Amino acid sequence: RTRFNGKQAAFIDVYRIGQQSAIDVADAVRTYINDQQSTLPVGVELSFWDDDSQIVKNRISTLTTSALQGGILVLALLTLFLRPSIAFWVFIGIPISFMGAFIMMPVFGVTLNIMSLFGFILVLGIVVDDAIVTGENIYTHLKTSESGEMAAIRGTEEVATPVTFGVLTTVAAFLPLAFIEGARGALFAQIPVIVIPVLIFSLIESKFVLPSHLKHLKLRSEKEKQSKFSKLQQSFADGFERAIIRFYQPLLKRAISNKTTTLVGFVGVFLVILALIMSGWTKFIFFPRIPSETVRATLTLPAGTPFEVTNKYVIKMAEKADELKQKYIEPSTNSSVIINILATTGGSGGASNQGSVRFEITPPESRELAVTSQDLVKEWRNLIGPIPGAESITFRAEIGRSSDPIHVQFKASSLDTLKEITDKVKVRLATYPTVFDIADSLSNGKEELQIELTEQGKALGLTRVSISNQVRRSFFGSQVQRIQRGRDDVRVMVRLPIDERRTMADLEDILVVTPSGGSVPLSHVAKLIPGKSPSTISRIDRYRTANVSADVEKSNTNMTVLQADLKSYLDELIVQYPGVNHSLEGEAKEQRESFGSLGWALVFVFFIIYALLAIPFKSYIQPIIVMSIIPFGMIGAVIGHWIMGMELTIMSLLGMLALIGVVVNDSLVLVDFINKKRSEGGELMEAVLTAGAARFRPVMLTSLTTFIGLMPLLFEQSTQAQFLIPMAVSLGFGILFATFITLILVPVNYLIVERLKSLFSLQPTIESTKAPHNLTVQS
User: Fold this and answer.
1) How would residue 200 be classed by pLDDT, with cut points 50, 70 and 90?
2) Most buried of 215, 574, 699, 745, CB within 10 angstroms?
3) What CATH number is attached to the domain comprising 659?
4) Residue 247, Cα to own-chain centre: how many angstroms?
5) Residues 28 and 77 grouped into a single domain
6) Interhelix angle 114-124/696-714, nearest 10 degrees
């Protein structure tokens, strides 16, 4: 029985199939409802419920807005640091690369959805990195080249190696996301399918299209009249260059003069933050609890509960939801935050002991009242109160949940043993203050009457089987005929009249036929003993199983510590019950599968990046210099979560995995520049100091564009964006923090490695004892 906003209702579910668009299907349904409304009888109306297309529209709108805002911010940032013409042509690479990815989406079977849109936002700031380095270098060569064409050729060739391999390392870092195991692996796999084609098309654009546009650039003449904006931009660029000379160069010289102290200091900070993570001070939640726009309560009563009893409690739950609807009214619109209430009595297969109540609420970004779905659940739970005899009543108000935060599975041969163990585990879980909705799969069972033969019955030659069969034929009936009427199969059953099978007395008085052909009342030959039996029996590998599940207030719980404590208790408990096996299922199982994939992914990424870096450097040591910055990118990601007040999640770890490929790009540019200066005959110390100053602007700009491109998403309030934000935090703050470290630590590490090489080769160090006093910043 179904009620919609207190009225009797019937529902028809409409699904999309194949490649149909959910939005198109929903629009067709809405059109049909509007057209048919006027043709319905009085008192009958058509409406819709649980429109998933609206969620899709909101997600697309949210992420599209974030992408547009990020793109505008990236263009503004490029314009401040570079000439407007260079900034424009660098920015043009974004839509060109995105169009390339759109072309490839049908090839890989990817649609425009929340994950694919998130992939575009992630790569928004990264995609211009190669164009920034190339464009900035072309403009630098324009000052010394005889023509714009030569400047474009030389500038592109000079940074071709670091730019190309920088893109390849980023591709290598995103690639493992396509192979993450677990229930959510298919969702994560859509991100690299978007990011990788965008990066490949961006590389092609920056090598062939961008130089052909920038060859037409001309240096500004001193006599040329400049606009106010040009003067402002030039003033900002000149001020930035002066800041490099005034602040960065002295800091770099001091760090180089105290190489060991600098390195030890950075390593110390890394170890402290690592200790805070490992000790549990920084909480880790496998998948965050994202408030949903639909709240649901599910009631389960003992098997066999009459439909009327279940319906009474479901109506009570719906009435309490309606009280909340009347309470929370928006002041400006005078409408409730609760939109619709749906109550259903009866479960799958006609189960009369189950029921549910759901209600929709307005999206958080359009909600004026400061009330969340969790707040409504807590108040609703209190209003409903305890339901007598209920086996379970669960409340859900979150999205993205595929399993329970706590789920323990036991396997044994004895049902009694399983019952004893599950009772102890439930008592243990109840001791955790943030654990609630504790339940097990061993229901209280269905009431039954067990037939036990008396001595007289045994003497008459009766058996329990023969008596049970006769009782079944009397009450349930015996099929005597089967008639086919068209498409209907009619079965004719013979049984006692309804008046003779209503009460226990009727059952005890039925006549049982003995083997000798006589008849005797059931009460003379058997006893009817009340009892209970399980309504369902689950087996895995022929063993009976029982599951204990519970929900957790994740915002107030360190799940890592809780799961470790629970595992320790279970290990001690199982020792007392030989032959019983247990395993942590639910989110714990998902976490094991995902972490296993991440472990192999990390090994793969490190190996591929090392191999890719060894090719251009023709060295086994210099790739280590470039990769030495990776741990500090992780520090930035963790600090970013602290700043944003967020816990680490699986999405955070995926962001850190992608960060590995992005964070080495700046290091690669610096080390490549140092090598080029040394190959031209420059001294080591001069080459190191010159590299930091000359590459400061492109290095800083590539990192800022990545962060700025993600910034609108970081502060997005919509429901659809919440579980994506941790990945954006890891990538944005990680690259921002690592950049500052790169500009100091990479030159220091380069000099340390060169010193070690000279010591082991027993040659005098080639490091100059004095740094050059006057350096010109190339821009």
Assistant:
1) very high
2) 699
3) 1.20.1640.10
4) 41
5) no
6) 150
Residue 639 shares a structural domain with residue 519: no
Which 3 state secondary structure label does DSSP give 491?
Answer: strand
Summarised one tens digit per residue, pLDDT across range 637-660 is 998 988 888 888 888 888 888 888
Asked if residue 472 is part of any domain, the answer here is yes
Q: Is residue 585 part of a domain?
A: no
CATH for 509: 3.30.2090.10
Q: Based on the fold, state whether residues 397 and 460 are members of the same structural domain.
A: no
pLDDT at 183 over 70: no
274 pLDDT more than 60 = yes
Q: Output b/e per residue, 367-405; b: 16+ Cβ within 10 A.
A: beeebebbebbebbeeebeeeeeebbbbbbbbbeeebbb
Domain tally, the chain: 4
What CA–CA distance (Å, rounded) separates 690 from 695? 8
Residue among 449, 450, 451, 494 at smallest CA distance from 475: 494
Q: Are residues 307 and 391 in the same domain?
A: yes
| CA dist list (Å): 555 to 276, 283, 405, 434, 642 | 18, 9, 13, 9, 14
- In the listed set 510, 533, 556, which residue is the last one of a domain according to the structure? 533
Q: Do 110 and 187 sit in the same domain of this protein?
A: yes
Whole-Å CA distances, 138 to 88, 284, 352, 631, 779:
15, 45, 76, 32, 10
Residues 529 and 613 in one domain: no
Banded pLDDT at 397 (limits 50, 70, 90): confident
Q: Does residue 174 form part of some domain?
A: yes
What's the farthest any 2 CA atoms get from each other in the chain? Answer: 127
CA distance linking residue 560 with residue 405, whole number of Å: 11
| Amino acid 778: pLDDT | 40
Domain termination site, one of 488, 511, 533: 533
Check if the beta carbon of residue 74 is closer than 8 Å to that of residue 126: no
Distance in angstroms (rounded) separating the CA atoms of residues 269 and 265:
6
- CA separation for the pair 285, 288 (Å, rounded): 6
Per-residue pLDDT of 218-232, as tens digits, reads 765 555 566 677 777
Rounded CA separation 283/559 (Å): 7
Q: In this predicted structure, what is the pLDDT of residue 773?
A: 39
Instruction: Tell which wins on pLDDT, 775 or 46.
Output: 46
Q: Counting Cβ atoms within 10 Å, is residue 163 exposed (0-12), middle (13-18) or buried (19+)? A: buried
Instruction: Say yes or no to pLDDT of 466 above 80.
Output: yes
The two three-digit tokens of residue 656, written as one number: 């850190």
Residues in a beta bridge with 530: 449
Helix (H/G/I), strand (E/B), else coil: 667: helix
Judge whether 582 lies within some domain.
Answer: no
Confidence at 771, pLDDT banded by 50, 70, 90: very low
Q: Are 465 and 397 part of one and the same domain?
A: no
Containing structural domain, residue 469: 446-533
Contact (CB, 8 A) for 604 and 709: no
Task: State the chain's mean pLDDT as an integer.
Answer: 83
pTM for this one? 0.72
Residues 209 and 329 in one domain: no
Digit-coded pLDDT (tens) for 547-604: 888 888 877 788 888 888 888 999 888 888 888 888 888 888 888 887 788 888 888 8
| Interval 129-149 mean pLDDT | 80
In 618-649, which ranges are continuous DSSP H helix? 622-627, 630-644
**Which of 35-39, 71-75, 718-722 has maximum average pLDDT?**
35-39
Q: What is the pLDDT of residues 232-271, one digit of tens each?
A: 777 877 777 777 778 888 888 888 888 889 889 888 988 8
